[in-house]
Amino acid sequence: MARSVFTVPLDSALKLVDEEVERRIKIVALDVYRNAIIGSPVDSGRFRASWRIGVDSFDQSVEDKDQKSYEPRAYNESDIDITYKSTVYVSNSLPYALRLENGWSKQAPKGVLNLAILQAKKNARKRFK
C-alpha cells in the first residue's frame, strides 16, 4: 500500500521532468534554426529560406528556385511535436548547402550551422542556469 502512495507523486514528478526536457529541446532547436537563418549568406535568399526543422527524420524540402522572393518558415514551439526521446534535425537540403557550411561564401567564411549550434549552446547555458 505504501508503494502505490509513493509511486503516484513520483510518476507526476517524472512527467513534469519529461515536459521540461521537451520544452528545453524545443527552445534549443528553435534557437539553432533562427541562428542558422541569421548567419546564412544571402544572394537570392533561397538558401536562408530553405532551413527546415524535422523531428525523427530530415525535412528535405527546399524553396522552389523560381520564386521572386524567399522568406524563412516561422516555426514556434507548438509547431514542433517531440518527446524527450525524439531526434530533432535542423537542415538545409539545397545542393550547395555543404559548400556554404565549409566556407564557400565570403559572407559566411566559417560556415553557418556549426556556428548556429555553438551560439545555441551558449544561449542555453545562460538561459537554463
Strand content is: 5-15%
The end-to-end distance, rounded to whole angstroms, is 38 Å
* Count of spatially separate domains: 1
Determine Rg (CA atoms, Å): 19 Å
| Sheet having the most strands | 2 strands, antiparallel
Enumerate how many helices there are, as a single number: 4
Explained architecture:
The model has no long low-confidence stretch (mean pLDDT 91). Strands 1-2 form a two-stranded antiparallel sheet. It is mainly alpha-helical. Helix 1 (2-39) crosses helix 4. The longest helix has 38 residues, at 2-39. It has four helices and two strands; from the N terminus they run H-H-E-E-H-H. The chain starts with a helix and ends with a helix. It has one domain (2-127). This is HK97 gp10 family phage protein. It comes from Idiomarina piscisalsi.
Sequence-ordered SSE layout with sheet pairings:
Layout lengths: L1 H38 L6 H4 L1 E5 L32 E5 L4 H5 L11 H15 L2
Antiparallel strand pairs: 1-2
Please provide a brief summary of the model.
With 129 residues, the protein is mainly alpha-helical. 48% of the residues lie in helices and 8% in strands. The radius of gyration is 19 Å and the shape is elongated.
Question: Which terms summarize this structure?
Answer:
129 residues; mainly alpha; two-stranded antiparallel sheet; 4 helices
